[in-house]
Amino acid sequence: MMKYFIGVALSLINSFSFGQTSDKVQRILSTKGLVALWDFKEEAGHTRKAMGKGEFALNEMKGTVPRKMEGPLSGFSAELGSGSYLSLPHAETGALNIHGKKQGVTVVAWVKWTGEQTGFVGGMWNEYQAGGKRQYGLFVSLPYYNGKNQVCGHISQTGKPTPPFPYSIDYSASRHEVPTKDWVCVAFTYDGKYIKSYMNGSFEKREPELIQHTTGFEGYPEGLTQIKNPYYFPDGMGNNGSDFTVGAVLLKAGMGNFFKGQIGGLAVFNRALPELALRSLAK
To answer: N or C: which end of the chain has fewer CB within 10 A?
Structure first.
């Protein structure tokens, strides 16, 4: 009898959740420039299909990706951190292959992060093959160049490291840190000139600062001073051939930068959304 009542209670909770989140999903779907929205309602062992310009079915890699009965969009989420991730081959990326000199992009995600290490949320980002096939990607915590525990939006034109440094430095970083073990909306935009990082739909400007690990390089004997949010990058996005991945990227040693936690929604737009729109989506 107790099991029966627990089952009924869970059913009612899930029904209420779906009713509450349907408006949010519709708001996302009706936002101009949407390419794809994943709400991660599928069970482990199944591809994760998008709504938008195509299904863009994400395949499980290196094992299954568990589904948790918790999430801000569909009432479910993908649980990552065990070494598995989701991937769409480059040949199937289609409209997700966003690139160009003045092309904009926005990546928004609803995540519950554990606070452990660098976490790649989603995008077209490959740091190893052919010297690098970086394009665009949303991260949580990129500590090497002043982005520790912050929302980071990465853009690349060449796909390779930023000269004269050993890694790509071209990313924005939110002013405030991402809370752990709590649902938060993380996002970045790129309008062909500036990369901006947002948390819960809010943009916070950072002041000029000395970037760690840049001292002593050619042309920068005393290091590089930059503004990390917004980050000035007028070079545009290259068409560099990466797969679209969620939860991990390819590094020299293999797949890495595994996101640890839950992703309850991921949306990609082919333009830079204004702050007002991001605030609405983050509600």
So the answer is: N
